[in-house]
Task: structure prediction
Amino acid sequence: MKVRKAVIPAAGFGTRMLPATKAVPKEMLPVLNKPCIQYIVEEAVYSGIEEILIITGRAKKAIEDHFDRSPELELHLEQSRKSTMLTEVQAISDLVDIHYTRQKTPLGLGHAILCAKSFVGNEPFAVLLGDDIIQADEPVTRQLLSQYQDTDRALLGIQPVPTKDVSKYGVIEPVKGTAATNVPLPVHRIIEKPSEAEAPSNLAVLGRYVLPPTIFDALEDTPVGHGGELQLTDAIERLAALNLVDAYQFQGIRHDIGNLEGWLKANLAFGLEDPNLASSMRAWLADDHIRSRLASF
Result:
């Protein structure tokens, strides 16, 4: 069965980026001149996804407005003869069929995914976290979908992380005798935010999943876990106990724009890739005054 649908959870408060996120959703923070969530929607579209559900919350209306038509702006651009900008703005609202639903109470990622049950139906679906941008030659979701064959199984996008950072992620333990390669590996178990001592590996799930519809039954049977929230990781662990979870080490650089360091790095990395900015940014970074200033910190 082709994976046609994607779910983008975007209901969090964004507390790590306050005060910027007091009135602006963290998913709308710009990386260069484009909000983070547009990169994520585009990744889904370029991976062949046909319908997207964005899970929002209170004070997230700006997300819906961004992907909607803006007749006043379009008229202004047309009258100003800014045809390139007009085309770009119109293209945003024509990207894909986007639906929205609210997570009325912030009860965790697992609860957010449960909000998508009626949208997904009895189909496998992709999940792209709303504050994770991944720079890749091939969109990461497409990488996962190209490896996804058994619709009864879950497939997790993973990469190695520094051991000191394992407590930030869901961390997998591969089935004994397997190793991360260019093919999916079976997952024995997965632990949400383990300590360094508890972590079974340094292979972390980084914001991309392909999940079977049976995940909803697992979520409904999963008790509240870490942080008093319903954890998607705990439900995936139930599938792993049935030998129904694989992991795939995708290619790309992941940026967590939910924290200041990640957001700054994302802007720098994308700026250095932009043909209109790259040469001037490299010249600025190479300037003796700038280099000495940076070295003094």
